[in-house]
Structure formats: C-alpha cells, structure tokens
Amino acid sequence: MKQEDLLYAKTHEWVAVAKEGGTQIATVGISAFAVEALTDLVFIELPAVGKQVEAEQPFCEVESVKAVSDIYAPVDGEVVAVNSALPDTLETLSSDPYGAGWIAKIKVTNDANLAKLLDHAAYQKQCEE
C-alpha cells in the first residue's frame, strides 16, 4: 500500500479502507514513524477476531525493549481478521509496515470515525512537529 493513499490516526495507526460487499473493511497497522520511535520490538499482542473495538481506545499492544505501548483502534467496529504471522515475524513491522506488517482488519460500524483521520500530508506535518 502506498503511504500517500492511507489515512492516519494522531496516535500513529494507519488505515486502508476497502469495500467488501457493501461493508467497509479497515486494514490497520502502525506507521513507520511509530515503529522507529519504539525501536527493538519483541512482542505483539493481537486482538481476538470478533472483538468489538472503539475508536481511540486500545485494542492491542506492542512491546519493545523500552516499553509496552497500546495500539489504538482508529475506527469503531469488529475485528474480522488478524495478521497471525506477525508474532513470529515481528521484524515485518519495521521492514514492511504498510504492507505485510498490517495488524488487523476491522469491519467499520461508524463511518464518522473515518472523517476524523488525517490524510498523508497532515500526518507528515504532525510527525515533523
């Protein structure tokens, strides 16, 4: 996925939205900026498929040698898939954060959450500040 085509939460999660049979599915990951700030990742706790999530609330966590950090849901919805390979290939978050490093797919239940997300230019500006 091209970074320029994604939406971003202020908490550094990225979102790619696709329509699947009339339903919006948000693929979620964490940005390269966030991965770089966390440094040496050692563990990720993925959300359970079927979990109901709320925008701006933690829905999983990642652990680095520095600290444990929450990953926030950028939208309201239901987790419909997780990247089950990720815990065994954690380096993918660094090497391909916008592709194979995706974390979860969420069936969006509130489109209004999407309007609160930043486009690439606004996210880049936030990272520079």
Automatic annotation (TrEMBL):
Pfam families tied to this protein: GCV_H
Cofactor binding mode and count: Binds 1 lipoyl cofactor covalently.
Gene name, Swiss-Prot/TrEMBL:
gcvH
GO process annotations (BP): glycine decarboxylation via glycine cleavage system; protein lipoylation
PANTHER family associated with the record: GLYCINE CLEAVAGE SYSTEM H PROTEIN (PTHR11715), GLYCINE CLEAVAGE SYSTEM H PROTEIN-RELATED (PTHR11715:SF3)
The protein's required cofactors: (R)-lipoate
A Gene Ontology CC term for this entry?
Answer: glycine cleavage complex
**Keywords (A to Z) from UniProt:** Lipoyl
Task: Identify its protein family.
Answer: Belongs to the GcvH family.
Sorted alphabetically, which CDD domains does this protein's record hold? Answer: GCS_H (cd06848)
Q: What is this protein called?
A: Glycine cleavage system H protein
The lineage, from the top, is:
Bacteria, Pseudomonadati, Planctomycetota, Planctomycetia, Pirellulales
Q: Which residues carry this modification: N6-lipoyllysine?
A: K66
Q: Which residues cross the membrane?
A: none
Its quaternary organisation is: The glycine cleavage system is composed of four proteins: P, T, L and H.
This chain's function reads: The glycine cleavage system catalyzes the degradation of glycine. The H protein shuttles the methylamine group of glycine from the P protein to the T protein.
Lipoyl-binding domain location, by residue?
A: 25-107
